[in-house]
Each structure stands twice: as structure tokens, then as C-alpha cells.
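task queued by scheduler; priority normal; single chain, no ligands, no partner chains; default sampling; output format set to C-alpha cells
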Amino acid sequence: MTDRSVRNLALLQSSASTSRVLNLLAVWRRHGSDEAWAANPLFRNPLLNRSLIIKHRLRRDEMDLFASRRQVATKVLLPIDPTDLRLGGRSVFVDQLRFADSMKSTFGSGFTESDLKTLRLLDELPSLDPFLLREQLKRHEIEPDRCYFDLTEADLKRMFQFARDEITPLVTMSMGSAVGVEGHASRLVAKILSNAQGEEMEPLRQTLRLAHNEYAEGVFCWKGFLYYKWSLASVMTDIRRVAEAIATVRPMGPLDQESREYIGRSREVLRRKILRTRETVMGTLKVYDDAYAHLTTNGRPTAFREFLLDAPMLFTRLGDQVGAIQHIVSFWNFRFGEGKPPPSVEELIDVFMDFESSLAERDTDMPAQPQAA
């Protein structure tokens, strides 16, 4: 299909959140001349590897594109002109009806079954954050170059102040004085968030007691926990409000007995699951906080180093849970904000089913949480 959402597409470059958009066009612009990008692409099809992949709230007229009802889908968008996003593009939803045929029509015949498999793995995720994305792909033996796992520029700007506040205790400890801490913390955060390496990062590597081959992985994981702490903090004030609103929302129109029973049961189940998921995320992040305190308060870098190297095993569950919370809060604010009409019985049941699916436990093959040393 041709995507005419010109204004939204143009804004992706400046305002898109990492959890919602995987901007492969931006990756190509930054790294298209790198050997590693060419040797280890995310997709084999060159057009697909320069597309934008978006978690998209389906409009009413788009729901008929799928065999089963869903609220959110994964859109693959190919810009008409990669140098001018205002011109719009052509798009396909992952696993829409006649998916393979639509992919061939949009991207040509030069894509592989492995590309379709990768798209379906992305579609399974509640968000496209790079830490969850990397672990999902790794579990299925897909390991593209590290350049595909960056945060968007918009999120880097939004989380900068939060990350600087988190890093300040480490800078204060290392400097032994509060003088000049803010400037040093700002520079260090900029380097961590941009994956900077080289001699200027050598003091940090030595502080964390990471070997050269461990440094990139360790800092990537550190950035992951900063990202998840910031993501949770950004929706924290809305979580309980949305949970309580779910418990009281009333649909428009008559209710049959079966619908009444389902909605009544789902209200309390969803409320409990949302609040429990929030507590679980906070508990996981406390493991990080405890390990970081060993470094900044107790002067034990080894404990924090070991935590960072074990941290990827937490990203799948943490990313799922944070992504589910973000999805529920974002969708609720979008659909049930001030001035919006009440839902029909059918729509409310669809929304509740979507939320329950987002919060479903994914315990299979999940490793135990590492403990702070």
C-alpha cells in the first residue's frame, strides 16, 4: 500500500522513539560505508535493509488486513525518496493477508525466507528497543552488526539529563570533589550513549576493570539499564492512573451475559497484572542499582563489572515488561484521553484481550536473575 502519512513520516527523523521505530535508513546513512555493516546486515534484501520498521496502532480500516483481530502491528515502510521523507512511501504490515506477495510487490523478489523470519521475530516483540531486539535475534542465532542497536537521536536527547544524574555519583567518586562534576558527567554520558571508544574512554574501561574485548559489551549493557530506568520513570506517574481507569471504564451499548462476565473478570486481572509488572520491573532495576552502589559507594568495581557482563540475560524479560507497560499506557492515553468517545463493547473486549496478551508471562527458557555481588 502507499503510505500518505507524509507529515508523520517526515517527523520520524526528529521525534521517533526507539521503542516504536527501527530506522534502518538512518543506520544506512551513518554506517553504509562500513565493512561491518555490509558483512553483517540485519536483512539481506538491500531495500528492506534501508527501510523503516514501525510499531503501528491499527486504524479501523486497517484491521481487515489481518486474519485475526489485533490493535498494534509491525509496519515495514520503504520511502519513495530516501533523501526526502516528505514524499511518503510504500508500506507492508508483517503477516497481513498475502504478506509474501505484498513483500515481493514492494521490495522485489530479492528477499529471502530468512528476511521474513527476522520480520516475524520483530513482530513478536512489544517494542523495538535495541536491547530487547538484540536478545530476541540472538536467541534465534541472528547476529547483525552492533550498529543496528543504537538509540534514536530523539531518545538520546530526551534521556540525557536522566542519564547524567545517574552517572554523577561515579564522576564525583572518581574526581574526589564536586567541582566541575556536571561538565565531566555530561561529557561521559555523551560518550556512553554514543558508544564512543578509543583512548578517551580508557579511564572508564580501567575503572570498570573491563578487558578490551569486554568493554563494548559492558557499556552497551550499562546503556540498556539507563534506558530501561528512564523508560519506566517516564511512564511511572501514568501507570496507576491507567490501571485504575481500566477497572472503571464502561463500554457503550448493551452487554450480553458472556461479554459482561469477560469484561468484569478482565478489569481486575489487568489491574493486578499491570501493577505487578511494574513492581517486577522495579525489582529487576534494583538489582542494577545495588550493583552500581557497590561501585560508587563501596568502591567495588568488580561487582558492577560482573553484573554488566551477566546483564543481557535480563534484557528479554525486562524489555518485554517495560514494552508492555509503555504500550498499555500509550494506547490508553491515545484512545481514552480527554474528549474521546467511550468504546463499544466489542472494542473494549479487543483492547482488554490485547493488553492481556501484552502482559502474558514469557517464562519459557528464561534464566534466573543474577544477583548483585
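post-processing summary
- The first helix runs from residue 6 to 15.
- The radius of gyration is 22 Å.
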